[in-house]
Amino acid sequence: MARRERCNGCKLYLMVPPEAQSIRCAVCHTITNTNNAAIARWGHVHDSLIGPRRTSPHGSGTHAFPYVYGPHQRPPQPRPPLSPVSVHGRKRALLCGLNYYGKPYGLKGSINDVKCMRYLLVEKLGFPIDSILMLTDEKDPYKIPTKQNIRKGLKWLVYGCQPGDSLVFHFSGHGDRQIDYDNDEVDGFDEALCPLDHDTEGKIIDDEINATIVRPLPRGAMLHAIIDACHSGTILDLPFVCRMNKEGFYIWEDQRKPSFYKGTSGGLAYCFSACDDNQVSADTTAFTKTSTRTGAMTFSFIQAVENEPGLTYGRLLNAMRNAIRDAKAGLRLSGPIATLVNKVFFGSTSQEPQLSSSYTFDIYSKRFVL
User: CB burial class (10 A; 0-12, 13-18, 19+) of residue 290?
Assistant: First the structure.
């Protein structure tokens, strides 16, 4: 019977096969020599201490202990102790909606965005409801989109990812940009997401997001990020950005720098962003025609996917851009003071959704599939 040993590195208790004489921690990778004399003592530990025995694979299920393999076995990726959401299934999604209640920079449409996205994924695209983790401004401390919880959610999203899996990361909230200090950005800036506690804990920059959910993506797996935030054009730090003009013509812009690898481990990663790195996005009532606010990008994305099943990546990007242009055109004023008022309320730079990818492809022939 497996027993428990404390890791010499991180001090976590590890489940050890009875025949193992040394173990490697799946969390910190420290090798710990085991005490065989303790086998009998730990072999009779009551189920109430380590939980009932399971027939499911080691480390699976909500409350299972991570299984630690011997020196000649490949350790599994550690399961982040995040939430009661099952890691089983071929489709999985992390949805983060931040209204920043009580803050002077609060939003009104972000939680509506993730609720709409969950409906699309479950009702239209076949995502199991228990494979979706939502982080919103709620009372459950494990479901509040703090920096720590978003980090855990990102690790949960890619945990145990296998060929054939489809992953979705949706974020609706504030984005920002800051000086790039490690010289891995073409434009000299890191893009960042703003968690609920970013004022005290700091932002989550694109370098970390890339390292967490892009680089581990194995061959045969697919990741789509839908980021409804300001300055989000390259928020996943993917190697290629699709530069498209208003007529729909495009080229792929290479964002790679020789000393930095920002690709996957063989999987495919795509990111639809609300706007370019130097632009801002907005939530609005223009699409709902009611007092209910939504993010312009999220609404236009969902609308395009629902209205045109089987559309291509190029058609989707164009549909989103056209919807936002049309909505803004309908809101703009005309008359003697139109130029001044429109500049104040809409700014000099329009919001244009962006597409980036881990590789280049023909956006007008490849079908969009989640």
Answer: exposed
Is 230 catalytic? The answer is: yes
The pLDDT of residue 292 is 57
pLDDT 10s digits, 135-163 = 998 777 779 999 999 999 999 999 999 99
What is the pLDDT, as a whole number, of residue 253? 94
Q: Say which residues have a Cβ less than 8 Å from residue 132's Cβ, sequence separation at least 6.
A: 85, 92, 93, 94, 95, 118, 121, 122
**Which pLDDT belongs to residue 296?**
86
Q: What is the pTM of this model?
A: 0.71
Q: Single out the catalytic residue among 25, 96, 230, 275.
A: 230
Q: Which among 188, 202, 194 is positioned nearest to 229, based on CA atoms? A: 194
CB within 8 Å of 192: residues ≥ 6 apart: 175, 176, 177, 178, 203, 204, 205, 206, 231, 235
d(Cα 222, Cα 268) in Å, to the nearest integer? 5
Report all structural domains of the chain as residue ranges with CATH numbers, in order of start.
Answer: 1-79 (no CATH), 91-357 (3.40.50.12660)
Selected catalytic residue, list 7, 96, 170, 174: 174
Handedness of CA 236, 113, 95, 161 (dihedral sign): negative
The answer to whether 262 and 237 are in contact (CB under 8 A) is: yes
Cβ neighbours around 103 below 10 Å, total = 12
Establish whether 7 is a catalytic residue. Answer: no
